[in-house]
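tool=predict chain=A
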Amino acid sequence: MAIVLGVTGLLVLLVALMIFVRSSRQATAAGATTNRRSVLVLTLLGLLLALASQLPIFQA
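tool=predict ok
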């Protein structure tokens, strides 16, 4: 279970990175990207999943 949580967390972080890079390339001269909230939520979710895999309850 810990491996599944860790890999899922890393995949979510990879998706957040791809969204961030794609939106930063398409940013207008005004500077603001459109998906700041979604990138933040995905980053926090990925970190939460990756760190939860280290809890003793998920260790077999």
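The chain has a mean pLDDT of 83. The CA atoms of residues 9 and 49 lie 5 Å apart.
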